[in-house]
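Inverse folding, one chain.
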């Protein structure tokens, strides 16, 4: 083959190889629907972790912030994300149950996420069963907090429809309902909101079962070996100074393993 033909051959090979060279993995990140976090901040927080995963998996890993649940739900059903950090446990569980995703890790410090039912200091309510027929304020209807609220009410009164719900976009708006007598009870899982409520003399009537949130899940398109690489890397982060520096922007302590069957059992309790 002459020099000219060789150059043409190599150029053709490069053109054919280009799409594969550019191909990479999409790591979706959702940090909840009831918290105020701009997408640009989310992408920046996970940049170092994505870079490390790209080296380990030998292909680029791109962070894709996903702010709304309808998009997250749809794209998970389509298996569009190779990896996903999913704040709402119910969407992660559905992806595992229906779309073949695998639970990789859960986030330390978020294994005991619970819905707290807030009432005024002088409230006559004594138990969750007393809420039947009353008004309750809660964050976004599709938030994991509201799913926990409805599951808790099923346990207490049989049917959550026995309570009149008022939903609001953000968790920090819930106390307003109770303070201004718009609802008898307010439900939130945000620790800062709960602490502020108690500091002002408010009471917590009931605390739901804990549900681990902020799961990292992997698409069925990833091999068992790749899932293992991702899991081992994430579990190792809090074990070294370098790893802890990469965790700092996320504000997470680290990651932990969790039994997938136990997670699916939580899904049953939630009504999924």
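Residues assigned per position:
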């Amino acid at each position: 083959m002459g020099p000219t033909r060789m150059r043409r051959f190599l150029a053709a090979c490069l053109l054919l190889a280009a799409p594969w060279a550019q191909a990479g993995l999409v790591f979706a990140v959702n940090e909840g629907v009831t918290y105020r976090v701009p997408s640009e901040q989310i992408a920046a927080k996970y940049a170092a972790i994505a870079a490390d995963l790209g080296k380990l998996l030998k292909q680029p890993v791109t962070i894709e912030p996903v702010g709304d649940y309808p998009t997250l739900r749809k794209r998970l059903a389509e298996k569009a994300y190779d990896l996903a950090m999913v704040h709402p446990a119910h969407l992660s569980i559905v992806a595992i149950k229906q779309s073949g995703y695998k639970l990789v890790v859960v986030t330390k410090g978020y294994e005991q996420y619970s819905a707290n039912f807030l009432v005024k200091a002088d409230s006559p309510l004594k138990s969750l069963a007393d809420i039947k027929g009353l008004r309750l304020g809660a964050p976004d209807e599709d938030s994991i907090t509201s799913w926990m609220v409805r599951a808790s009410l099923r346990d207490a009164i049989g049917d959550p429809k026995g309570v009149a719900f008022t939903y609001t976009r953000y968790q920090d708006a819930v106390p307003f309902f109770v303070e201004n007598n718009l609802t008898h009870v307010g439900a939130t899982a945000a620790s800062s909101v709960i602490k502020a409520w108690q500091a002002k003399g408010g009471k917590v009537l009931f605390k739901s079962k804990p549900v681990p949130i902020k799961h990292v899940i992997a698409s069925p398109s990833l091999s068992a070996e790749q899932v293992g690489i991702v899991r081992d890397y994430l579990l190792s982060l809090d074990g070294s100074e370098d790893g802890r520096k990469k965790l700092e922007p996320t504000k997470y302590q680290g990651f932990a393993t969790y039994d997938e069957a136990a997670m699916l059992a939580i899904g049953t309790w939630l009504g999924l």
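Confidence is low (pLDDT under 50) at residues 9-22. The CA atoms of residues 54 and 194 lie 39 Å apart.
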